[in-house]
Design goal:
mainly alpha; ABC/ECF_trnsptr_transmembrane; ECF_transporter_component; transmembrane; Energy-coupling factor transporter transmembrane protein EcfT
Length: 219
């Protein structure tokens, strides 16, 4: 993995996600451009493809339940757009050192209350990733090997079990944080260097160009 500060990695991931989410509906050409950028981001961060595929596949099962009732034509664009967003953010989360989400979160220019909520959400996502890994290992021990076996395992009642176990563990983690004096404050300061600030401005400029042209030149 390239040596890159955690806040910078978070911001670049958000550039991809926000730009993709704001695309005009059925702007397939620009969605393909963002998909290519997301795959490059995966390569830059050197994400474990089996872990990424298992996590994204599980999340897409939930999204398909919501999107498919909208009609196949609309749902196909929404699912692929969601896939690009999930690839970008999960790549960041999967390469995040344990318990370091708060370091990256401190750099976001948002109110402290929102940062606290995001911090707890990030902590929950870390717990969810841990539970997914444990369930994948459990599935392999039961003879369900390969992507197809894991998909059958995840698409059954075990999905509900996954979120119940994650929620219970998240509650225990939050209780432990409160006992240790957590009050919602993040005692970490971070400022971007000149090169990092230039990289962010350049990335946002590209994202703005793609998104605006999707509205101006799409049929």
């Amino acid at each position: 993995m390239l040596k890159m500060a955690l806040p910078l990695r978070l911001h670049l991931s958000l550039v991809i996600v926000v730009g993709t989410a704001l695309l005009k509906h059925h702007a397939w050409y620009w969605l393909g451009a963002y998909a290519a950028i997301a795959l490059i981001w995966v390569a830059v961060l050197r994400v474990s493809l089996p872990k990424l595929g298992g996590l994204v596949g599980t999340e897409l099962i939930f999204l398909s339940v919501v999107a498919l009732p909208l009609g196949w034509e609309r749902a196909s664009f929404l699912l692929i757009r969601s896939l690009v967003c999930l690839i970008a953010m999960n790549s960041f989360l999967l390469t995040l050192p344990p318990h370091s989400f708060g370091i990256a979160l401190k750099s976001l220019p948002v109110p402290s209350a929102l940062k606290e909520n995001l911090l707890l959400t990030g902590q929950y996502l870390e717990i969810l990733l841990s539970e997914v890994t444990r369930m994948q290992r459990s599935a392999q021990l039961r003879g369900l090997k390969g992507a197809g076996g894991w998909l059958r395992y995840a698409s059954s009642a075990m999905i509900g079990t996954l979120y119940i176990r994650s929620l219970e563990r998240a509650e225990r983690v939050y209780a432990a944080m409160v006992i240790r004096g957590y009050n919602g404050q993040l005692p970490i300061d971070f400022t971007f260097k000149a090169k990092e600030r230039f990289a962010l401005i350049f990335a946002w400029a590209i994202a703005a160009f793609f998104t605006l042209t999707s509205y101006l030149y799409s049929p």
